[in-house]
Amino acid sequence: MDARSKDERGRVTALLGPTNTGKTHHAIERMLTHRTGVIGLPLRLLAREVYERVVAKAGVSRVALVTGEERIIPDRTQYWVATTEAMPLEIGADFVCIDEIQLASDPERGHVFTNRLLHARGLHETLFLGSDTMRGAIAGLVQNHSYVKRDRFSTLTWSGSKKISRMPERSAIVGFSVENVYAIAELIRRQKGGCAVVMGALSPRTRNAQVELYQNGDVDYLVATDAIGMGLNLDIRHVAFASTSKFDGRRMRALLPQEIAQIAGRAGRHTENGTFGVTGEARPFSSELIDQIEAHKFAPVKKLMWRNADLDFGSASHLIRSLEQPTFNDWLSRARDADDVVALKALSAMPEVADKLTNPKRVMLLWDVCRIPDFRNISETDHHTLLARIFDFLVGRGIGGGRIPSDWLAKAVARIDKTDGDIDQISRRLAHIRTWTYVAQRKNWVDDESHWRGETRAVEDRLSDALHQRLTQRFVDRRTSVLLRRLKQKEDLVAEVNDKGEVTIEGQFTGKLEGFRFQQDASASADEGKTLRQAAIQALRPEFSLRADRFYNAPDTEMDFTEQGGLMWGSSAVGKLVKGADPLKPSVEAFVDEEAGDDVIEKVRRRLQHFIDRKVAALYEPLLALGRDETLTGLARGFAFRLTEALGVIPREQVATEVKELDQEARGALRKHGIRFGQYTIFQQALLKPAPTRLRLVLWSLWNGLSEFPESPPPGLVTIPNIAEVPKEHYALSGYRPAGTRAIRIDMLERLADILRQKDSRAGFEAVPDMLSITGMTLEQFSDLMGGLGYKAEKGERPRVKAATPAVAPEAEVAAALEAAIASGQPIPEEVSLLAPAPEPEPAPEAEAGAEGEASAEAAPPEMEVFYTFTWAPKPRFQRPERGAPRGDRPQGDRPQGERRDRPQGERRDRPQGERRDGEKSGERGPRKEFGNREGGRDNTRGGKHGGKHGKPAQRHEGAKSFEARPPRKDKPIDPDNPFAALLALKGKV
After folding, report:
1. Could you give the C-alpha distances from 691 to 611, 618, 687, 716, 765, in angstroms and in order?
2. Which residues, listed in sequence order, are joined to residue 277 by a DSSP beta bridge?
3. Residue 286 has what pLDDT?
4. What is the DSSP string of 570-614?
5. pLDDT tens digit string along 605-629?
6. What is the DSSP letter of 766?
7. Could you give the CA distance from residue 436 to residue 376 in angstroms, rounded to a whole number?
8. How much is the pTM?
9. Helix (H) or strand (E) holding 818
């Protein structure tokens, strides 16, 4: 067969040259000068772009779009825009144009372009657009043509290798796999704020939406495959290659120089110059390759891919043989088997398909089915199985009726019509729907073609929109993009701060304004963060000033300090306390962004200083008054200084010497300021409240330079856990004293000490309800507390004594007693209780013994109760010789006469004469007799442990220690002249 066309009509022109020469624009202009025209383009994406450009010039009613998956054909169509494979050649158009004609050398699709080069002709004009490398091939295959060379409008220059982080704006980064494109896009989003993504697998709707992001300036970066090399006119200044190899459907191969030039040529639009380079792992180009690209000089094409177009449909084998027919033209080379030929061979070998190939019409139908592209790219077997099923439907067996069943097609489309999922899931669905979109475009393949064409297009549009949304969400940070664009345009940014402190700039969330510091969105990357902060600070300057004025006029009730020294305004941290010149005069540090200005910083600092000064003055007024009291002199003034330095609470053992040296007058002067000289702690009662305690811990920690401050115990607790890791000093500052496993509040400890001083700590005593009530403890917990205070606890059991039922006095006697009290006009004394139970008469021993003997056989075991007996047993602090003899050399209990024994601190006798403890009445010394006289004498009937010598207990036959109660106090005779005589007479009867 002669490769030259025998029907060359009209003028044939080859318009050749590099990219950015205006070839496509020239072709559109030439087509519109004719009555009818057809233009074939290499990509569906490019066909859609050119279609929209022609529609803008000629009107939508005169332009048709025909691709494998889309058909828009108005009734008055004059101009046809199509993919090269879908070009309508039988209509006899006046003008025919083939774009990117150099693809005739492509191993996959080259035979289609070669066929158009040989056979596609316009009645009046034919135009071939492409690279100058096709000049020789066109001259060898096309007769009577003219050649026009176009030069590039701008220069293209090599710029070397650049990291993505340093990529200039308006750049396109090119990858050759979906994984590579996504990885680059993710990196750019984190470093540059976002990018648009363009791939050949995208639908035109998705691709156009992504290109619009780039073209309108929402993003400054484009990540794409080699799809951008085919005529997409974008505002690109720099093209960077992330790879220089691609998978061509069979194997990985290096890009050809002309392929690199085709893609790099996208840089530079019209007269604006462009640059190209590499990035990532791509190696820099050689100097020879750089020279070729910059000068647009490449080796000419020597061979074009060709496949016989004169097909024999007599049988499947005849069809395959005609497709494999060789060529004898030196310019042509038979193309390798494309996907459609591979599918034809596979399906014709299937018995169920071969049995149906009974005539040439069915062989032609099988060939049409085999030309359905494998959009899904799952596997050849799955694709061939689907084609066989479609062919089976179209042949018809009484089920399909020669059509694809609508219910079967509806189920297939419904499975795809889902817009949830990630990018990969939606991309797979989009590839699947393209198969059914292609099927719906074939004539007589489905019932109600218009319905299915519209339905599949609608599903594709929904999936396209969903894919664009997912791509934008994943690879575009609109917030950063908007802010960058506004900053470039030097426009005033509008900032809004809501009640939660959330900052939005131009409607984009950028972070939170916490007090006077801007906390930008944590999800932003480092580069994003710079842009966010730059935009936010610029927009927030007026807000800083307004907020500073509002803060300066705010009441102190809106402010507070934290236990770690922070200063709060509501829920916002606005500063912190720092060490000052005095423990009670801390300084402040304001938390204000430097960009807010010095005036705002100073205003916030002054207001915080006023707040903390007033807070200290209010909570520590008693202590400050103590320091200002000029009447205090000598030792009293020195002690006042010590207490002020300790912030109002100091353990007594730390100042024992100073306390001894204070006389009663000095102590009285100090007591006027609320100072209590307790047995364990010296403190100001007013400073034990929760608020002063909380502030004391902060002030002390600041003054001592702690990095982490101790926290104040919850208010209202009498005891708290005694943690070994917590220093004892921290407990004292908190108002507690450790004792055992718990620490007790120091004021409650002093109340307990007052009760303990009245007990016989040598002979032993039991805990009374008042003790447990003060501490809020159980008996076991109280024993542990007493052990921490230096007492020894001994546990015992005894039968529980049931309280006797009180007798009720006659009402007449009670009424008469009350009338007598009222007539006297005096209150009822405390020792008189009308509700006190009458004492039970003690039964005779003989009677009691007899009764016990009679009931012993029938009586149940008595209910037992646990009790503790406490004795003073402090642990010696150290061992030292005393009065010439080591302590260990003396027998226990054999001390020289007059030597002082260990006793509770409250029972010491070395106080200045006339001193009394807090809570003691004047002249009252407390129960002292049990400790004997100063000469060491001892009343063994009252002191020590009953029944033994030198305090040693007598041993009972059962081996248990026991203690006898004191003799009951004799009741005094009732004075008949006492106005309460009647009431006293009723005591114990009611």
Report:
1. 15, 10, 8, 12, 38
2. 160, 240
3. 93
4. TTEEEEEEEEEEETTEEEEEE-B-GGG-HHHHHHHHHHHHHHHHH
5. 999 999 999 999 999 999 999 988 8
6. E
7. 11
8. 0.56
9. helix 811-824
